[in-house]
Design goal:
heterodimer; A: 230 residues; alpha/beta; 6-stranded parallel β-sheet; 8 helices; 38% helix; B: 112 residues; alpha+beta; 5-stranded antiparallel β-sheet; globular
Chain lengths: 230, 112
């Protein structure tokens, strides 16, 4: 591997961007395909497919064998609301190897005692989100029921490539939310990205069951066909 | 878990940039119950220092030895390990799986 390719691969990783190293098995010839270059690559379809699984592997095209080293950013979930459901999500997300970031300016809720081992930001989403950045490997989940906290988060998520956006609330609550987002300039196509009512329909009742339904929906969005970067 | 692969390739870059001979070993295929997934890396320098893992300890010694030749002659190699090998107890996988490992040199000078 050329040192230049290795440096470029590491740079993409540091910037939380996907990249795939293509190695021709027989000759050892290599090229790095960055996220934005995939569509134009001769192996675009195979690379996309491999990237969705997040796994490296050997592929074959027109009788030639290639090894694809897949470097996908680590998926993470950003939640507004240090609430009961996000507490239940914490150990489940860990078991699924998903990073969890919880944002809540209400310091009575956002305490390390309630969220051991979780990245906890006791700030307003307007402050926290620009810093941590939302990207195509981030899921955003609004759980506070409080528009003052959830709406700025949802607006930031709608302006990003987040692979999943979900918001807690009844159909009535969500209807009002859609009116506010429309007033903020988001059309139905944009707001259609929001999963609401949130979570797979498994009849979830308890906070843990709701957390499970949300995480299942997130995993299905992550492993299904990926939203193209804007 | 796999997130540590970041640090491994970062180390490979730093070692190579510092002028050390470096080889990268990558698990390219597995059959049966393999201890490390396809894409796992082991990074080795000319002195036999290594980071990461391709098998959880079973065949690292053999890969490190082979990497010295890769660094010396600059030619990549494909290695296969499995219990079917006669040397199973020396460099085999006790779990019964088989793995194929690609070992390649890191070439080129540092940009800076």
């Amino acid at each position: 591997m050329d040192l230049a390719i290795l440096s470029a691969l590491n740079a993409e990783r540091a910037a939380r961007r996907a990249a795939v190293l293509v190695t021709e098995s027989a000759s050892g010839a290599q090229r790095l395909v960055r996220q934005g270059e995939i569509a134009a690559d001769p192996l675009a379809e195979l690379i996309e497919k491999q990237l969705r699984t997040g796994k490296s592997g050997t592929v074959e095209a027109e009788g030639v064998s290639y090894f694809l080293t897949v470097q996908a950013p680590h998926p993470r979930i950003v939640v507004t609301g240090a609430v009961h459901i996000s507490q239940a999500m914490a150990p489940m997300a860990k078991a699924l190897d998903l990073d969890l970031v919880v944002i809540d300016p209400r310091t009575a809720f956002a305490t390390p005692e309630r969220f051991p081992g979780v990245t906890l930001l006791p700030e307003w989403p307007e402050e926290a989100l620009p810093r941590i950045g939302l990207d195509g490997y981030t899921a955003f989940v609004a759980l506070t029921h409080d528009p003052k906290i959830d709406d700025p988060g949802l607006i930031a998520a709608l302006r990003s490539d987040c692979f999943y956006i979900g918001a807690l609330g009844s159909r009535k609550t969500h209807g009002k939310r859609l009116e506010r987002l429309a007033a903020a300039g988001f059309d139905a196509t944009a707001t259609g990205r929001i999963h609401a009512p949130i979570g797979l329909d498994i009849g979830a009742v308890s906070p843990a069951e709701i957390a499970l339904a949300i995480l299942a929906e997130i995993v299905s969005s992550l492993r299904g066909p990926r939203r193209k970067p804007a | 878990m796999i997130s540590t692969e970041t640090d491994i390739l970062r180390a490979a870059e730093e070692w190579a940039a510092a002028g050390r001979g470096v080889a990268i070993a990558t698990v390219v295929e597995t059959w049966g119950s393999a201890p490390r997934p396809v894409g796992s890396h082991l990074v080795i320098d000319g002195e036999g220092n290594f980071l990461g893992s391709v098998s959880g300890g079973c065949v690292e010694g053999a890969v490190v030895a082979e990497a010295a030749d890769v660094i010396a002659d600059g030619k990549p190699r494909v290695l296969e390990f499995g219990v079917a090998d006669e040397t199973a107890w020396k460099v085999g996988l006790s779990c019964g799986g088989r793995i194929k490992v690609y070992v390649e040199p890191v070439r080129g000078e540092a940009a800076r």
